[in-house]
Specification:
Elements: H1 12-22, H2 24-55
């Protein structure tokens, strides 16, 4: 039977890095990334909608008469 491994000790820099990634800065980063991706998708949707309306001749933003 082998001897048990000694407990794994982490240095202060590694503990600080883990805390930053999985702690408040990591959560803040994930919220910012989610908001940016949402805003970019929304912007792309608006651009596509306006280009489609312009192509159909409805530059005023009103819904088209086509069904």
């Amino acid at each position: 039977m082998r001897a048990p491994c000694p407990p794994l000790t982490r240095g202060p820099l590694e503990r600080l890095t883990a805390w930053l990634v999985s702690g408040p800065l990591g959560h803040l980063w994930s919220v910012v990334a989610d908001l940016v991706s949402y805003l970019l998708r929304r912007l792309a949707w608006n651009v596509r909608r306006r280009l489609t309306e312009r192509r159909l001749g409805r530059a005023d933003g009103a819904p088209s008469e086509r069904r």
